[in-house]
Amino acid sequence: MSLRSIAVLLAAGLLCAASAPAGLFEDLYRAIDRYYVTPTGSPVSPAPGGGLSNGSRFGRLRIVPNRLGDGYRLELDRAFGADRTGRPEVFDLGNLELELSGNTQATIGFTRRFIPTFDARLRAGTLSYQLRGTTGGQDFVLLGQIDADQAIQFNALGFYAVNLTINNVDSRLVGEGLGVEGNVDTSFDVGPITIRGHILADALLALATSLGINTEDAEALFPKSPIDRINDEIESALRQNPVLGEAVITGWEVAPAATRTSSSDEPGSADAAALAVDPALVPEPPSLALLALGLAALFRR
């Protein structure tokens, strides 16, 4: 094969690789615009400020360049409600339908100036919902009102921050029919939750905990990181492992004398007791492999 043929094949491969992600994002953008952002019902008309409207229903989706930060920002706005004739907005799936009334908003973007950073902000303001279903003999309705606010930020240095608050009020599940009668309170609150840390540091601490190393002092470097709760779950799982056992969790401590293999009646018992190693202190092959992969990733970093 000539050099010219090889060059043509490489160029074609690069063009295909570049167009595949672009086509994926374009299809995703069109799907969001068609099935979520565009208000239901007809007629839909242009609204002030851009977007489309139908009564109190409104939808807008656009990508805005951020020249100052050398990036882009996706803005999504969607208001659910009654149309021009007063009909509520219902997504009908046959025996299951969802009625919504309220506002949602999302702002997702990235900047490449100085430290490349990705950030996203998602909001749902006084979003009332009614999920209704029927089988003929049994009906149910799940209804309530949600206020939610979520912010995520992640940069190229590995630092991340998450803020989350969800309030689901006046929520209940109502059953009516041959099988179930009555209602159940389903209200709940989440947060406010604030998480902040470093993804590589959290991964290394989780790896160290899985190998039985005490990481309590290192966890204090990022006090708002969830790594302490993750490590607690890892330790709980390790304590239930009959091979690793509690000796690993204690931070590579020497096992108690009762677990050592020694006998005063056997010749050379003193040397045997000094050289005996508790099998519980030796990591399993999967743990050694995990350690090797972690060290390789660290050196590559």
Main attributes?
301 residues; alpha+beta; 2 domains; eleven-stranded antiparallel β-sheet; 7 helices; flat
Count of β-strands: 11
> Please, how many domains?
2
**Into which percent range does the helicity of residues fall?**
25-40%
Biggest sheet overview: 11 strands, antiparallel
Uncertain stretches = 244-283, 286-291, 295-301
Arithmetic mean of pLDDT: 75
Question: Secondary-structure element order, as H and E?
Answer: HEEEEEEEEEEEHHHHHH
Coarse morphology: flat
CA radius of gyration: 29 Å
Structural class: alpha+beta
User: How many helices in DSSP terms?
Assistant: 7
Assembly type of the chains comes to single chain
Q: What gap, in angstroms, lies between the N and C termini? A: 38 Å
How large a portion of the residues is in β-strands, by DSSP E?
Answer: 35-45%
Concise structural overview:
This protein is α+β, with helices and mostly antiparallel strands and 301 residues long. It contains 7 helices and 11 strands. It folds into 2 domains: 20-186, no CATH class; 203-300, no CATH class.
Word description of this protein:
Helix content is 31%, strand content 38%. Helix 2 packs parallel to helix 4 and helix 2 runs antiparallel to helix 7 (285-300). Strands 1, 2, 3, 4, 5, 6, 7, 8, 9, 10 and 11 form an eleven-stranded antiparallel beta sheet that branches. The two termini are 38 Å apart. Residues 244-283, 286-291 and 295-301 have low confidence and may be disordered. By secondary structure, it is of the alpha+beta class. It folds into two domains: 20-186, no CATH class; 203-300, no CATH class. The longest helix is centred in the first third of the chain and has 35 residues, at 3-37.
